[in-house]
């Protein structure tokens, strides 16, 4: 095992332990939380090493970096796209992404559906909810709670797309607990209309415990496993 693989293994073990402890504290099964490892800015060799260490779910946030890594990655990996999607890149992303966590507008739904259809693929979609407190000026993207059902209906009826649930990013510099509670509320309301849309993607390196306490089914973790990120180019 290379030094880098040993380092990644340590990070993975630490994060899996944190997930198990947080699930236990919330009275949940650790297996009810899926770890999605965010590999953005790190090389394809790290993706390969993670796959050898048993990681099955990996995420990227930018095209074409994501496409480059899918090309070198293992076929056993599930690819999650977690960054903002430009409409003109949606078709390309639908060719390799298994799940897009950041669906936030109808035009994007249509573009993803077109790409999935052209590629004969099925792409899972999460609706990104803005978790900024009302009046915060929207520093982070996402839809408002009253837009979720409309967007959900659009996804649910689109050929090639599967509505999976919701995603959120805690507001920077604020207690993530109330934000994740708002996401959980929206998730519950969505499930009243779409019972299979059970995913709640929330929690990153610094706040995965709060997310799991609020009911997250998928945590997206980068730095706590891979280390400090090289600057985005
Ligand atoms: C980068 C990123 C993450 C991972 O963040 P870390 O702080 O490195 O754990 C999670 N979600 C999204 C949307 C990201 O862009």
Identify the notable features of this structure and list them briefly.
alpha/beta, 233 residues, eight-stranded parallel β-sheet, 43% helix
Give a quick rundown of the structure.
With 233 residues, the protein is α/β, with parallel strands linked by helices. It is built from 9 helices and 8 strands.
Can you give a write-up of this model?
The chain has 233 residues and is of the alpha/beta class. The protein is 43% helix and 16% strand. It contains 9 helices and 8 strands. It has an 8-stranded parallel beta sheet. Helix 7 links the parallel strand 6 and strand 7 (199-201). The longest helix has 23 residues, at 3-25. The radius of gyration is 17 Å and the shape is globular. The site of pyridoxal-5'-phosphate has 13 residues, from strand 8 and helix 9.
